[in-house]
Queue: 2 jobs
Job 1
Amino acid sequence: MFKKKEEKPFVSAVIPAAGSSRRMGEDINKLLLLIDGIPVLARTLLSFQNNENIDEIIVVCRESDILGYAELCKSFSISKVSQIVRGGNTRTESVLCGVKACSDKSEFIAIHDAARPLISQDIITNVINDAINYGAAAPLVACKDSIKRVENGFIVGDVKRDSIAAVQTPQIFKSDIIKKALQNAKDNNLSLTDDCAAVEQIGISVYVSKGDYKNIKITTPEDIELAQTLLKEV
């Protein structure tokens, strides 16, 4: 929470929801699967709807999903969704479409995976504050398992755990930074795994915010079961 109302910047949230669900199988849209009776996408959007620091939400999806997602937003009274826009051919292009749809008033843009429905209010707010202080921030968690280098099916060495971490979302940036970074990635056909990588490509460092192990990404059917369990612990 910000101490003074006048200090609060305009923050947009871009939610990429245009990806496929291949690992779910049988052409299942994982974003419509239920966690304790509420669709994954609705849970994600409600997290940003309920955060007082978020001013608008942009959803990016396949054209065939636009009407359905609009109905979902209406059903769950998600009023901060200002636009639902069609994505591009790659994740980077899709996020860029969402970023370009943000309000001209937007000072910071939060990009969050639609398939991370358990994001907490504290994480959203903390990453926003870190982005305000440093220009770019993302939540990370330490890797708990031993990490190995593998070649041709055999372990060939260790990777020190203290030098690596797992990045999560929301990844939050000053608007001009992420717009420049994503446009650069598109213009140069860069193959990137997340938005931090795009920002790093233009020479800007991303501050490490504290992540949350419960902030899982729904990828497989087992993740739905895990999310159900984690939800009971919240």
Job 2
Amino acid sequence: MLNRRHIRIKVLQAFYAFFQSNNEDVLKGEKELFHSIEKIYDLYVFILMLFPSLKRQALIQIEEAKRSEYLRQDIDILKTGFIDNQLVDIIEQSKVLQKISKDRKINWEGDVENDLTKKIFKEVYQTDYYKNLLQSESTSFNDDKDALVQLYKKEICNLEKLHHFFDEKSIYWQDDLDHVSSMILKTLKSITEDQELEILPLWKEDEYEFTQNLFRKAVLQKEENDAVLQTYSKNWEKERLATMDSLLMNLAMTEALEFSSIPIKVTLNEYIEISKFYSTPKSNSFINGILDRIFEDYKKDGKLVKRGRGLIN
């Protein structure tokens, strides 16, 4: 479920928090890192559970409309395109999702959550993508899939009310929503007719170990890496070397030295890209220049041990 880019970002955030708090307990910092990653999975489950909750709001609206001539002036209000959507039904009936949500105590049943679901449904109901879903006369599974994917991609995942709710719900989710939304879309697209919902795993093979080792080794090697950075950035005043720049380069140096299967170019490019979002405007060119020189000297000194053709280039 997690890709390497997002893992590096989560390690960077934990690395930053660890040193900003003057923490000296590596295991405590590591525990906080993995807790933040577990919260990504909670967000994923939370959003999946939103679809059945919106279906319940649609059913409530239809029942209210049956008793109200005024509400029935809306020609779409009694249409059941969303309620009958086959993917929504598969998500709602998933025993696996029900168990995970129960174990993690994730639902939309609280007063705040229920009120938000009502507001979200009212907003979604007015959108063209929802109206198109209601208007569709097709009952094919693929059409249902495409309609729900587009509704989530174009409308639901962009709702400010939803973003605000998740920001308030957990401090960890502010930077995770885009990544989790890509997971939701992948999950929706993977659903097949008459099959159980396939819940994505939190970890891919070996990613837990990569995460743990990158954090631990970066913490343990920080003093040594800082000394190297001071040598290569001696033309810069210490105060001008942004904390985030320093931590980004620390992680990149640790990864280059300790992970023999990751090409140097991949490491360099990844941390340059991350710096565009998590550091100062011109940091990426500065980081690129410093790391490029460090890695070149590492190669000359035989410090980079890479297994596989082309990994050291």
